[in-house]
Write a structure and sequence with these properties.
This protein is an alpha/beta fold and 330 residues long. It folds into two domains: 3-99 and 301-328, Rossmann fold (3-Layer(aba) Sandwich); 101-292, Rossmann fold (3-Layer(aba) Sandwich), CATH 3.40.50. The chain has helices at residues 16-21, 41-45, 59-63, 83-88, 101-116, 119-126, 156-165, 183-187, 195-201, 221-226, 246-254, 274-280, 301-321; strands at residues 3-7, 26-30, 49-52, 70-73, 93-94, 148-152, 171-175, 190-191, 204-207, 231-235, 257-262, 290-292, 327-328. A seven-stranded parallel beta sheet has the order 8-7-6-9-10-11-12, with helices on both faces. The chain has a six-stranded mixed beta sheet with strand order 2-1-3-4-5-13. The longest helix is centred in the C-terminal third of the chain and has 21 residues, at 301-321.
């Protein structure tokens, strides 16, 4: 074997699929640790490439990658990777955005439609209906053709969400200052230049932007106050977009927003919080108004295979012929 490729940890070990992709080119060293301080310096020092799942990779660990030629993240986000330290060390870093687009878009649209139709609230409250039944219809109840959905971030996933919503008849607004002029014409949504405009007009706001200095803490008191009263908020992007859970708690308790659907939280697994305690206890005031899934919007059986194969192929492409795809610069 010419090369040694390390894998810090894995969503679902063993890393047999990665070994198959790299067969004939490299051997796999499965470090099998989600704690950075438990990574063996000697094993790091012999790696020619490193695949990272959930383990943080800081400046100290980067210094131990004596012969490493490339680091690749299995997923899209790279908040736990010190990209600047890798760049200074001359080690290119790549992420893996080419998987799970359909799954996250489907997940977001499922949340949008279910919260718009108040399905979870109907389900929760129907358990207590006895003498009456069909007359227990909740109001207000939005019709898709009369509702506006605001999409914050119209990249790969945001575009897939727009394409899925259009047949339902929603009016769709998009805010993304990083998309080229005319993107809205090609995809089919109305572009707004100011986020405040989107918030004021949208019955549903769905977030599909990365966690950056610009977006961390974006979903806080000011944003929630700028939203249309009684609107629905969906976040299948990043937990770091939330400025904690206190603003969401206050907005739901006051009725400022109707409901929240989220696949991500500021801390995962979540720490105790009054809002999550009420959610776990199925308190009546929150019935069907807060939907939480455990950061698995990206997942399907096919997406998991796609994610692993793509990441390993990125390593193979670089080690074989120097091709860099999906490179991230600091």
């Amino acid at each position: 074997m010419r090369f040694v490729v390390g894998i810090t940890d894995h969503m679902i070990p063993p890393p047999d699929l990665e070994a198959a992709v790299l067969d004939g080119l490299a051997e796999i060293d499965f470090l099998n640790s989600r704690r950075e301080d438990a990574l063996d310096p000697e094993r790091l020092g012999r790696l020619d490439a490193l695949l990272v799942w959930g383990t943080p990779l800081g400046r100290g660990s980067v210094a131990k990658l004596a012969r490493c030629r490339i680091v690749v993240r299995f997923g899209v986000g790279y908040e736990k990777v010190d990209v600047a330290a890798l760049h200074e060390a001359g080690i290119p870093f790549c992420n893996n955005p080419d998987y799970g687009t359909e799954e996250v878009a489907d997940h977001a649209v499922a949340m949008i439609l279910s919260l718009q139709r108040r399905l979870w609230e109907h389900d929760a409250r129907a358990r207590g209906y006895e003498a009456t039944w069909q007359t227990n219809t909740l109001s207000p109840l939005l019709r898709s053709g009369a509702a506006t959905v605001g999409v914050v971030g119209v990249g790969r996933i945001g575009t897939a969400v727009v394409n899925r919503l259009k047949p339902f008849g929603h009016r769709i607004l998009g805010y993304d200052p990083y998309q080229p002029a005319g993107h809205e014409k090609a995809v089919g949504y109305r572009r707004v230049r100011r986020l405040e405009e989107l918030l004021a007009e949208s019955d549903v706001v769905t977030f599909h932007c990365p966690a950056t200095e610009e977006t961390r803490g974006l979903i806080g008191e000011a944003l929630l106050a700028a939203m249309k009263p009684g609107a629905i908020l969906v976040n299948t992007a990043r937990g770091e977009l939330f400025a904690g859970l206190d603003p969401i708690d206050a907005a739901l308790r006051s009725g400022r927003i109707a409901a929240v659907g989220t696949d991500v939280l500021p801390t995962e697994p979540p720490k105790p919080h009054a809002l999550l305690d009420a959610w776990r206890r199925r308190e009546d005031w929150l019935a069907g108004r807060l939907v939480v899934t455990p950061h698995n919007a990206f997942h399907s059986d096919l997406a998991a295979v796609e994610m692993r194969r793509n990441a390993a192929e990125t390593v193979r492409l670089f080690l074989e012929d120097g091709t860099l795809r999906n490179r991230i610069l600091p």
